[in-house]
Design a protein that fits this description.
single chain; about 200 residues; mainly alpha; Arc Repressor Mutant, subunit A; Tetracycline Repressor, domain 2; 2 domains; elongated
């Protein structure tokens, strides 16, 4: 993480909008890193401001509360990690190709944004009793599953839910962040696991 200027000091050569955008990005990065390290229930605004090297006033200048900052982390996860999976799905003509492309795109983004992925895995959606990352992945996985069923790759009556498929993606991402591994091999394993699950 980039070191913040000392409290009360900032680059006066920057215009206010540029300075505000940099502060907000620093707060967002610190929020993701604290969520990844502590989980949602143990993360506080105090943890974030210490980690970001900012004042409490700076935090509240950008966010009304912790829930607001967490919502922005989830939105960033959607944009940086989940959206590339959808683009990969749209870029391949066959369900097998789509699944391999989605798995590869997902794991590439996991390597690029490890704190977002861990944060998404540790921020719960209480109503759906699963992580926010699984919730965000489900619509993309559902689109793939519908196409796979139409193409005969997935059994029409297979007793599988998109929750299980999304959980496989999440588990592969968390494994890559925590233990590393060859991205190509992991993407292949993820695609094989999903295919086996839907047969």
């Amino acid at each position: 993480m980039e070191i913040a200027p000392a409290r009360g000091r900032y680059d006066r050569t920057l215009d206010e909008d540029t300075r505000d955008a940099a502060q907000r990005a620093r707060v967002l990065q610190a929020t993701a890193e604290q969520l990844a390290a502590r989980g949602r229930s143990d993360t506080t605004v105090e943890h974030i401001i210490i980690h970001a090297g900012i004042s409490r006033a700076t935090f509240y200048q950008h966010y009304e509360d912790l829930a607001h900052a967490v919502a922005d982390v989830v939105q960033l996860l959607q944009e940086r990690v989940v959206a590339p999976c959808r683009a990969a799905l749209a870029g391949e003509p066959t369900p097998r190709g789509q699944l391999q492309a989605m798995a590869t795109a997902y794991l590439i983004e996991v390597e690029s944004h490890p704190h977002l992925v861990l944060a998404g895995a540790l921020v719960p959606d209480v109503l759906q009793a699963q992580s926010m990352q699984c919730v965000l992945l489900q619509p993309v996985v559902q689109d793939w599953l519908d196409g796979a069923r139409r193409a005969g790759l997935a059994a029409p009556g297979a007793n599988v839910t998109v929750r299980w498929l999304a959980a496989l993606f999440e588990a592969a991402g968390v494994e890559l962040v925590l233990h590393g591994g060859a991205l190509g091999d992991m993407a292949e394993r993820l695609a094989r696991g999903c295919t086996a699950l839907v047969r």
